[in-house]
Known about the structure:
Layout: E1 2-9, H1 14-25, E2 30-36, E3 41-46, H2 52-62, E4 66-68
Antiparallel strand pairs: 1-3, 1-4, 2-3
Helix pairs in contact: 1-2
Amino acid sequence: MSESTYTVTGMTCSHCADAITQEISGIAGVQKVDVNVDTGRVTVLSDGELSNADVSAALAEAGDYELVTA
């Protein structure tokens, strides 16, 4: 199992958290998604490493959310 934490911009409410959870959960291998709107953090438990491209695509599908990369 792999745990990854992402910083996401554009989240403001529980609807945002629900939409993001639903879309990221659709990525192959994802077991659990925890969204914290207050901190802008999304923690994902998955079978293996996820690509930033897959996470970014899921965020775009969920709405106007953006993955912050270092």
